[in-house]
Design a protein that fits this description.
By secondary structure, the protein is mainly alpha-helical. It contains 3 helices and 2 strands; from the N terminus they run H-E-E-H-H. Strand 1 and strand 2 form a beta hairpin.
């Protein structure tokens, strides 16, 4: 049982290291550590902002698209985390 617990802890540590490797953060003087989206997400948000800035789409539409993208990404990450936790328990 102790070996299984140590294996689960080492897997949890590995998962945490992978999460940290795929996340970006900036240390700001007043705010402290601020997490940033991955580069492909930043590109997506920049493209949506550019489309809104040149008035190809309206700002409310751009905000709705960006909010939907954030919600879908968060849901996907949560599902992947739950699958990983289920595999750890197996």
């Amino acid at each position: 049982m102790a070996q299984r617990t140590s294996e689960a802890e080492s897997q949890s540590d590995a998962v945490q290291r992978v999460r940290e490797a795929h996340s970006f953060a900036v240390q700001l003087p007043i705010l402290g550590r601020v997490a940033l989206p991955r580069p492909e997400q930043l590109a997506f948000f920049a493209a949506i902002g550019l489309l809104a800035a040149v008035e190809i789409i309206e700002w409310p539409v751009a905000l709705t698209i960006a909010a939907g993208h954030i919600l879908i990404t968060d849901q996907h990450n949560r599902a992947v985390q739950e699958i990983g936790e289920a595999l750890e328990g197996a």
